[in-house]
Amino acid sequence: MVVKVSASTFFSKCVNLKDLTLHGIEMRDLEELTLCLPQLSNLSVTNSFCNVLNVVTPQLQNLTASFDSIHGLYCREGFSYLEKVHLSWFNTYFCVGKERHLSKIIGVLQKFHTAKFLILDASIIKALSSCVDQLLLEPCPFNNLKCLKMNTMLVTRSHVVVPVQLKNYFLDKSPTATFITDYPQVPQKRSSQQVYDDDDAGAKKMAKLDLQKQPAADTTIITQENELLDANLQMQDQVISKQEAMLEAKIQMQEQAITKQKAMFEAKMQMQDQVITKQKEMFEAKIQMLDNVIAEQKAKIQMQDNVIAEQKERIHMVEVAKLDHDKLISYVIKSKIAELKVQVESGNPDYEVIRSIGSEIKSIMELIPDSLRPVMDAQFCFEYVKWKSLFLTHIDVSQWSKIETELGIINGV
Predict the structure, then answer these.
(1) Residue 43: beta bridge partners?
(2) What is the 3-state secondary structure (H, E, C) of 211-274?
(3) I need a labelling partner for 53 at 20 to 30 A (CA). Which of 132, 298, 336, 395 fits?
(4) End-to-end Cα spacing for the chain
(5) Burial annotation 245-257 (CB, 10 A radius, 16+ → b, else e)
(6) What are phi and psi of 49, to 5 degrees?
């Protein structure tokens, strides 16, 4: 019978758990083990087996695990929140020289591609060294490493040598990461004989010693990791200080640039104000000149009007002096009748003009002797009646009445 264990039945009462270690646990009969631990920050899974290990740990930062224990590790949200990953392989007999397991190793490494601190134990280094040529065909999964540490000491107290190709593979996308190892590197790939020199009995013995000496090794690893973290924190502080200094310098440069731009803008505005003021003064001066010209032209026109008026007066006086009274009367009557004719023919008489005609007739009558005034009056009435009969239909009765009223000298017409 298949048994399924979920967070509701396993670790369900450990909601505040922050550190969890699973070591030497066999769970082959379980289809799935779910760890739903919202406060968990440190998880260690070594020398254990589970078909599917489903973790729901949003606060997880540090993971210590062996490859043979986490091949079924699964997290729906991924492991992008992990800071440090420490990987080992307890079953060295199963791994060494087995190139067909390389894909499993790559698959596990890809799950932790966002880790910043990566620690690889000697057993994994030994396994990867045996198939480094095939490993180099795969892209490095780590993009943002800050520190790579390779522990080269096996449980037998012997060291594995780290090939340069293997180190370069892990640092390919993180060239600025710190690399730490406790044994010198070799410039070329190790021989197959060096990789496979541990026989089956030796592998089993290493696994046994590893289990017996795990506490001491863990203490050493923790001390080394703390030292590594302190060094990295110090480096980060230096980087932050440098970045802060660069930021302050950049801000200062920007402030200087802003001040300079402000000064340039104010100078430009001042220049524009000066140009506007000068243009305003020029415009006002031009207007004043135009006003003066107009005033001069008006004065000239007035003088011309005065001259014309004087000339007209002189002509009038000359004409009056030359004509005798009869001719003057005949001339005046004909001219005024002609002016009246123009007004009537228009169909819309200008009564101001007609009033002016009447005034002029009166003025002329005052210039002639009193004895001739009735004659002139009678002659004008005769000519007026004669002319009116010819143009009677050009205007209506009311207009004729208005004309006669404005003339003021017509009697009994």
Answers:
(1) 20, 63
(2) HHCHHHHHHHHHHHHHHHHHHHHHHHHHHHHHHHHHHHHHHHHHHHHHHHHHHHHHHHHHHHHH
(3) 132
(4) 146
(5) eeeeeeeeeeeee
(6) -140, 135
**DSSP tag of 191:** P
Question: Dihedrals φ, ψ of 61, to 5°?
Answer: -120, -35
Tokens of 89: 């392989």
Contact 54, 8 (CB under 8 A): no
User: What is the DSSP track for 305-319?
Assistant: HHHHHHHHHHHHHHH
pLDDT at 198 over 50: no
The 10 Å Cβ neighbour count of residue 350 is 12
User: Virtual CA dihedral for 220, 222, 226, 232, nearest 10 degrees?
Assistant: 100
In angstroms, the CA 363 to CA 346 distance is 26
For residues 49-67, one letter each, b for 16 or more C-beta atoms within 10 angstroms of the residue's C-beta and e for the rest, the string is: bbeebbbebeebebbbbbb
pLDDT at 93: 47
φ and ψ at residue 54, rounded to 5 degrees: -95, 120
Do residues 10 and 32 make contact, with C-beta atoms less than 8 angstroms apart?
no
Return the structure tokens found at 47.
């020398």
Residue 159 is given by DSSP the state B
Residue 220 CA: distances (Å) to CA of 214, 224, 225, 371, 376: 10, 6, 8, 158, 152
| Environment class of 258 (CB within 10 Å of its CB; exposed 0-12, middle 13-18, buried 19+) | exposed
Nearest to 202 by CA among 70, 130, 96, 355: 96
The model's pLDDT over 141-183, given as tens digits with 9 standing for 90+, comes to 888 899 989 887 766 667 778 888 888 888 988 889 998 887 6
Give the residue carrying structure tokens 């600025």: 176
Q: Which two tokens stand for residue 294?
A: 């107009």
User: At 110, which amino acid appears?
Assistant: Q
The alpha carbon of 332 is separated from its chain's Cα centroid by a whole number of angstroms, namely 91
pLDDT tens, position by position, 2-61: 445 454 455 667 778 888 888 877 777 776 777 788 888 898 888 776 777 777 888 888
Task: Give me the torsion for CA of 278, 284, 289, 290, rounded to 10°.
Answer: 130
**Confidence band of 409 (pLDDT split at 50, 70, 90):** low
Domain boundaries, the chain: 3-238, 323-407
Q: Are 378 and 412 in contact (CB under 8 A)?
A: no
